[in-house]
Amino acid sequence: MPIPKELSLADEELDSLMASSWNMRIATVGPGTRINMTPLWFVWVEGRIFTYCRGQKVANLRRNLQATILVDKNERFPELVGAMFQGTARVLEDADAESAEAGMDQARDLMGAKYAGGHGGPAVATRNEATARGRNWRWVVFQPTRTVTWDNHKIKRPG
Q: So where are the chain's domains?
C-alpha cells in the first residue's frame, strides 16, 4: 500500500531532511543477487546525491548502476521522517569526470562544511578536495528516478 500523499514531505522539508541528516544508507546489488547495504556521508545538490566512497559499493555500482538510498530520522514510528530514492548512480572514474560534473564544486563545498570535525577533529569547514584514487576510491553521483517521502508526525491521531 502506498504512503498517503498527506504524509509526504514538501520540497522544503525534503531539502531540510537532506541537509541535516548525517548518514544515508545505500543498497547496491553485489555479486550474484546479494544486496549490499551500507551507511555513507552524503550531500544533496539540486535533487541529486553526491558521496565519496570506496570498496564494494563502487565495485557493485560499476556492474549495476541501479541503487536505492534511504535517508531517515528518529526511531519511534510516530516520529519517523524519511525519504527513499530509487535510481541510477554514476561512478566518476577520474579527475576529468569530476571536473565535468555539474554540481561537483557545490558538492565539495557542502561536504566539507557538513562533516567538518566529523572524525573528532576540530570543526573547521574545509572544502572536500578528495579525488579518484587507487582502484575504488571514487565520487558517486546518484540521480533519483523515484522518490517516496514520509513524515509520521502528520498522521492524524484519534482525538
A: 5-152
- CA–CA dist 155, 41 (Å, integer): 29
CA dihedral (90, 72, 18, 81) in degrees, to 10, reads: 140
Q: Is the pTM of this model over 0.85?
A: yes
Report how far Cα 40 is from the mean position of its chain's Cα atoms: 7
The grid coordinates of residue 51 equal: 558521496
- Which positions ≥6 away from 135 have C-beta within 8 Å? none
Q: Which amino acid is it at 58? A: V
For residue 30, give the amino acid letter.
G
Alpha helices in 3-103 (DSSP H): 11-20, 56-63, 95-100
The residues with which 125 forms a beta bridge, in sequence order, are none
Residues 6+ apart with CB under 8 A from 31: none
Estimate the share of the chain in helix, then strand, then coil, as percent rounded to the nearest 5.
Answer: 30, 35, 35
What are 69-118's pLDDT values in tens digits?
999 999 999 999 999 999 999 999 999 999 999 999 999 999 998 988 66
End-to-end CA distance of the chain: 25
109 Cβ partners below 8 Å, 6+ apart? 127, 128
CATH number at 5-152: 2.30.110.10
